Amino acid sequence: MAVVRISDFIEDSDFAGSRKSGEKVREDIEQKLKDSNGVTLDFVHINMITQSFGDEIIGILTRIHGVDFIKKNIRLHNYNDEIKNILNYVVKYSNKFHKEEVA
Description:
Helix content: 40-55%
Strand content: 15-25%
CATH topology: Transcription Regulator spoIIAA
Order of helices and strands: EEHEEHHEH
Distance between the termini: 30 Å
Number of strands: 5
């Protein structure tokens, strides 16, 4: 499983807040998912994220692939309860907009 360290995308802060930095993280996640059997998001040194950042890194992927894909392919590491709550909210909300493909 590949690792994406969130702090590598955030300059001199323990706060991940912008969609721009979230977009860079998501692009890294997408690339690593092509080359591995999953991704661990490591939140070491990150104490808080915004809902916008969470939407960029997880919400968009949920809307595209669905919650089962997220559960199967994305793991979290070194996160606190606030980060977990924001990401859970984003996944739950975004899953409402996922459309299953019909064969």
